[in-house]
Specification:
It is a single chain. By secondary structure, the protein is α/β, with parallel strands linked by helices. It folds into 4 domains: 50 residues, no CATH class; 229 residues, Peptidoglycan recognition protein-like (Lysozyme-like, 3-Layer(aba) Sandwich), CATH 3.40.80.10; 120 residues, Immunoglobulins (Immunoglobulin-like); 172 residues, no CATH class. Strands 1-7-6-8-5-11 form a 6-stranded mixed β-sheet. Strand 27 and strand 28 form a beta hairpin. Helix 14 crosses helix 16. The protein is globular.
Length: 703
């Protein structure tokens, strides 16, 4: 010990080196590792800890709700292999994953799997890696600039999104680093537990995500220092050379790398991807405090790069604007003199949220005889010079806006320009007769710009849905009648007490002298909170009911088919009046139902070019009933709902109206191995299931 002090000749220098961890390899080779260990342990026991300001904030400290982890009905555990999609073609990454499983099967076998914690069952079973080879850097892709929330609040929101919105049962990342430099513990389970951050690469890797969107903003230096410290710590823990390479699924890759180095993705964003070499060098030197030099990009070039990346992420075509009004469907539209029709446009918000009733576009027209109006709340508002945004729109989001055109009485060609999009209205044919006024407005076909054959006053109205380009409204307003107390003024209603139980927004209105609580929510989130099919039911039955429930809600979202005309809401949370809706209290306890909703996202049933109104009920005595038997006169598409044998329910009591799909029959068919689509075809023959949008349900495999 004495010799070493004399050789280095500076006790203070030794303390500083040990405290900062900055050891140069040539110097280390001249010291016995055993003696060095003795120095660290006996001479300066507190030096390193005193100089180190970093630590990992535990789940309990940042407020993780551990109830998200458990369920009464466990889901199939996460694996790195694709899910069974026998009826769909494999994507390239699924094929690559299948080949990796075949060539390197040992790399996909966990060391162990844990499904229970005492008497509680994990929603996402814990799998453990035999070893850890890679440290993978991500970004959350959620911009933090302008976000006033604390990093703890963002962490809880990210945890909730992964656990519940995406139905995983936990967060996919092992660690998350805030813009303030705080390091948060992510996935539960401890060392070697597998996460859900890289498709086909969760075993043998650790995922670290930085809060922010680094295609459009730079990480903070505090964030990068914490990242480097964490990488140093994990490299030592898992015996990884941070500046080295290793074989992973047959490929030679760097041990510290970005998400994009394993998959086709922009993650972890431009500014982190371009600085990974600096990070590796610093980590290999045990240096976490050196600042990162971010690339300087010419303003014009930077704008072009970022716009291209953002367009790709939003699914925007290269020739379309990143923000503003865009056409949704044809811009050449035909109609009869004096007639009216509904058409839709879309508005993209870009990197900043847009408030409700913000003027988002100028509107001009070739003739004042061409009438234009837009739907705001439950009313049609005439458009003069400006288009208003109906509802608040989050950053990097799209809102569909319903417009109505009232054609002039005089035939001719008319134009209207809405935020740079020019529409042409060809007004031809026979003029509308006075007796025809007051008939419902048709919806314009998105493929041709024409309207479907008009129904007579005595016919049940239907909605034209010619193909999968049709978009059903993405928001629904539900009256929470079961939560109302009969109060006469909103000052006595405590909406804050309900905010933790319902997604979306809550508002109070006074209707007919009594308060009404209204929950405005995304349609898919509303369906996730429907208390129709709990997780005690078979999964395919849940899928069938998810499609039927979505179709039912979509039917009544059409303006001229509203269940509650004249009211500022679309539905009610009472099953006697609409559908049984319980919000997050049901959603969080029934992850399989949420999974069924996400799996069928956007799917509805139609016959011809019209949505159906699909009734369903609990049980019957061996056959379903026709609408006439149930006392429903002039029920739309009654031929679909003729009485059918329902042998799966034989011997059971009648519970419900008996029309359409029975719960007992759907359960029996699901237990026989039938898919949801087959169940629906039996109870609603002649209908077609269409996808109203092209969004693919997110999976647990990571971004």
């Amino acid at each position: 010990m004495e010799k070493i002090y004399k050789k280095n000749d500076n006790d203070l220098r030794m303390k500083k080196l040990l405290a900062t961890g900055r050891f140069q390899t040539p110097w280390l080779t001249r010291i016995s590792s055993g003696l060095l260990c003795t120095i660290i342990l006996t001479s300066f026991p507190d030096a390193a800890s005193a100089a180190n300001p970093y630590r990992v904030i535990s789940r309990s400290e940042w407020g993780a709700d551990e109830s998200f982890l458990y369920t009464d009905t466990p889901e199939t555990e996460i694996t790195d292999i694709k899910s069974d999609k026998t009826s769909e073609p494999e994507t390239k990454r699924e094929k690559d994953c299948s080949q990796a499983h075949e060539k390197y099967p040992d790399e996909f076998v966990p060391a162990r799997t844990v499904r229970k914690n005492g008497d509680k069952t994990y929603r996402w079973a814990l799998q453990y890696s035999k070893d850890v080879k890679l440290l993978v850097v991500h970004h959350t892709a959620i911009q933090v600039t302008g976000d006033d929330r604390s990093s703890e609040e963002r962490m809880r929101a990210l945890y909730n999104m992964h656990s519940n919105t995406q139905g995983w049962g936990d967060i996919g990342y092992h660690y998350v680093v805030g813009d303030d430099g705080k390091i948060f513990e992510g996935k539960t389970g401890g060392d070697y537990v597998a996460g859900g951050h890289v498709y086909c690469g969760n075993l043998g890797t650790v995922g670290i995500s930085l809060m922010g969107n680094f295609d459009i903003e730079k990480p903070t230096q505090a964030q990068m220092r914490s990242l480097q410290w964490l990488l140093i710590t994990l490299s030592k823990r898992y015996h990884i050379d941070p500046d080295g390479t290793t074989r992973f699924h047959g490929k030679e890759v760097q041990t510290v790398l970005g998400h994009r180095n394993l998959l086709s993705t922009d993650c972890p964003g431009y500014y982190v991807t371009e600085t990974l070499n600096q990070i590796r060098t610093n980590v290999a030197r045990n240096d976490y405090s050196t600042a990162i030099r971010f690339p300087v990009v010419a303003k014009a070039k930077s704008a072009g790069i970022l716009a291209k990346l953002q367009k790709a992420r939003l699914g925007v075509k290269s020739d379309e604007p990143l923000t503003g009004v865009i056409a949704s469907g044809p811009t050449n539209i035909e109609g009869r003199p004096g007639d009216s029709a509904i058409f839709v446009i879309q508005y993209r918000s870009g990197n900043a949220g847009v408030n409700r009733r913000t003027r988002i576009a100028n509107v001009s027209r070739s003739s004042n005889r061409l009438g234009l109006s837009q739907e705001l709340g439950s009313r049609d508002i005439a458009i003069r010079n400006d288009l208003l945004l109906p509802e608040y729109l989050r950053p990097r989001s799209v809102q569909t806006i319903r417009l109505k055109v009232q054609y002039p009485i005089e035939p001719g060609t008319y134009t209207a320009t809405i935020g740079g999009v020019e529409y042409t209205f060809n007004v031809t044919g026979r003029r509308m007769r006075n007796s025809e006024f007051g008939i419902r407005n048709e919806i314009i076909r998105p493929d041709t710009g024409r309207v479907s054959q008009r129904k007579t006053d005595t016919e049940e109205p239907s909605v034209s849905i010619p193909n999968s380009e049709f978009l059903i409204p993405n928001l629904i307003r539900i009256r929470l009648s079961t939560r109302e107390t009969g109060a006469t003024t909103c000052t006595t209603v405590n909406l804050n007490a309900l905010k933790s139980q319902y997604r979306g927004t809550l508002e109070c209105k006074v209707l007919d002298g009594k308060t009404a609580i209204i929950n405005e929510i995304a349609l898919e989130d509303y369906l996730a909170g429907l208390a129709e099919e709990p997780d005690t039911e078979p999964y395919e039955k849940q899928r069938a009911f998810a499609i039927a429930a979505r179709t039912y809600a979509a039917f009544y979202l059409q303006k001229d088919q509203r269940k509650f005309p004249g009211m500022p809401y679309d539905g009610d949370d009472s099953p006697a009046r609409f559908q049984s809706y319980k919000g997050m209290s049901f959603e969080l306890k029934n992850p399989s139902w949420v999974k069924a909703v996400r799996n069928t996202a956007g799917k509805v049933m139609m016959i011809g070019d019209a949505l159906i109104k699909p009734p369903y009920f609990s049980s019957d005595d061996g056959r379903t009933r026709s609408p006439d038997e149930a006392g429903w006169n002039n029920f739309p598409n009654a031929e679909i709902f003729k009485s059918k044998p329902d042998p799966w329910c034989k011997g059971m009591p009648m519970a419900g109206h008996g029309v359409g799909m029975s719960g007992c029959g759907a359960e029996g068919q699901a237990e026989e191995g039938k898919k949801a689509e087959e169940i629906l075809e039996y109870y609603y023959p002649g209908t077609t299931i269409i996808m109203t949008n092209d969004q693919e349900p997110m999976t647990r495999q990571g971004k």
